[in-house]
Every structure is written in C-alpha cells, then in structure tokens.
Specification:
By secondary structure, this protein is of the alpha/beta class. It has 12 helices and 5 strands. It has 2 domains: 3-19 and 198-275, Helicase, Ruva Protein, domain 3 (Orthogonal Bundle), CATH 1.10.8; 27-195, P-loop containing nucleotide triphosphate hydrolases (Rossmann fold, 3-Layer(aba) Sandwich).
Length: 292
C-alpha cells in the first residue's frame, strides 16, 4: 500500500507532476492566469510569463490548457521543448501540430510554402470561423533569436481589430535579457509578469490546499508550525521544493512511526541533504518589476 493511503489520502498529495487539479492559486499565479485568459479572449497577441526554476510555470500552463479545453472557440497547441535547428523546421513543426499538413509529409516543404499554409490557416480559423488560435510555449528560454524572429513575423498576421495568432511564452528568467535585446519583439508584449517564490503564509496555504485536494479529511494536523518554519527557511518558498520536502517529510514520519511532522524531522532531512551535497544552490529569484 502506498504511503499516502496509509495516512488517509485518496491520492498522492505532493507529486511534482504538473497536475492542474493541484494548481495552487497564489496571488502571482492567479494574476498571471486571469490576465493571460483576458489577453486571449481579446486576441491581443503576445503574453510572457517568467519565473525561476520551480516557481510553477509548467503547472500554470497545464491549468491554462484545462481552462481552454472547455472553450469550443479555441484551437491550441503547446510546445514543450522549442529547440529547433532552423526556422524551416520550427514552422514545419507548427504547421504539422496544428493539423495543417499530415504528420507524414516528407520531405519538409519549402519555407515559403509553410508560411503561406500557416497564414491561410490562421485567416480561415480566425476570420472565417471566428476561432482563437493559441500557441503556448513552455521552456521558452530555449528559443533562439531565429525562432523568436519567426514568432515575431507570425504576430504580424492580423486584421484591423485583432491578432490572428495568440502566443503565450512561459520561460525562465534568462528569457528576459534575450527578448529585451530584440526591441521589435519586446514591444509586442501585451501582458508580462513574473512568478515569484511564495511567502510563508502562502507556502502554508499551498501545503494545506494539496493535503485537502488529495482527500485528507482528518482534523489532525500533519505538520506542526515549527516544521513549517523549517520548510520555508530551507525552500525559500519555491513550490517545487516545498512539495518535494513535504513528500520526504511524510515518508520519514511514517518510517519513524510518528503521527505528525515536527521540526526534528525536517531538520534531519535537511541535515542529510546538506551532508550528501544535495542542497539547492544558486541565486534566488528576487521580486521583479517585469509586469504589466
């Protein structure tokens, strides 16, 4: 039997998979999701969401997709790894994944043919059928200048009232310096924001939310206040690190035949990670003014 079932959970509470059902809507995440949905509805073109590793960008993208699946007027595709050798392969990938050309098309058509096919598709869907075509790109910091130029050109496809392609980029902080260096791309951003690590109270709410969402109904607390403080001090409020620590803490609690996660359990987990060289290092994300 899985550890979480022993504790009375219906499912694992602290998985690091980007399950939208476990999306904790912190003020930063709620602001990002709400604004991106507004931008998409208004067909304003380009939205950019930045965040350090483990701040919840991928889970946000899955929550966004969950919201879009309920809308019959939307067509969307998500790119999980936007690394392409050249612009022709990039555009071919978009054309194929939007279903404009069959997957088996070979050899790769000419760049001109691909562009014209994509332009006709966007016009047909956006103008004739009045649908919203959305491209979501995760790990957008992997986009090179050539791919960004392709996206900039696609944003030029528009009517007098709206953009034909809605683009959402989610990437790590280093994407900012890249797009700032491309003025005619940066100026096209309609909405931009940064996901920051959680505050202490937000972190506690995240943990309580995931525990409830996983089906825990007992009135007994699983984690003591002093343990929360140790978790926050070590993780600095990074959601992924918080969920990983809580997963380890619950397992350790069971192995020690305890009924609650206390300060000692968290301190021992941290001490073990530090001893073995597994502690997280590197600069933490500071509050950013990259928002509008």
């Amino acid at each position: 039997m899985s550890y979480y079932k022993v504790l009375g959970f219906e499912q694992e509470p602290f998985s690091t998979s980007p399950d939208p059902e476990f999306f904790y809507s912190s003020p930063d995440h709620e602001r990002a999701l709400t604004n991106v949905l507004i931008e998409l509805r208004l067909k304003r073109g380009l939205s950019v969401v930045l965040g350090d590793v483990g701040t919840g960008k991928t889970t946000l993208s899955r929550k966004l997709i969950q919201e879009l699946k309920g809308r019959e007027d939307c067509l969307f595709h998500i790119v999980l790894d936007p690394s392409f050798e050249d612009k022709q392969l990039f555009i071919h990938s978009l054309v194929r994944n939007f279903g404009i050309l069959p997957d088996s098309t070979a050899p790769v058509p000419s760049l001109t043919f691909l562009r014209e096919s994509l332009e006709r598709f966007l016009f047909q869907k956006g103008v004739v059928e009045n649908k919203t075509v959305i491209l979501i790109i995760d790990e957008a910091q992997k986009l090179d200048p050539v791919s960004l130029e392709v996206l900039r050109l696609l944003l030029n496809y528009e009517t007098n009232q709206f953009k034909l392609l809605q683009l959402v980029l989610l990437g790590q902080i280093e994407l900012l310096s890249t797009i700032k260096g491309i003025a005619n791309f940066f100026d096209r951003i309609s909405f931009k924001t940064t996901l920051n690590p959680l505050g202490f109270e937000e972190m506690k709410e995240l943990i309580h939310f995931r525990i409830r969402q996983a089906g825990y109904h007992s009135k007994m607390d699983l984690i003591l206040e002093e343990a929360f403080k140790e978790i926050y001090h070590y993780t600095q409020g990074y959601p992924r690190q918080v969920t990983m620590m809580c997963h380890k803490a619950l397992k350790e609690m069971l192995m020690r035949h305890r009924f609650v996660v206390d300060k000692e359990i968290i301190e021992d987990i941290i001490a073990s990670e530090v001893k073995d060289g597994w502690e997280r290092t590197g600069a933490l994300l500071q509050k950013s003014s990259f928002s509008s």
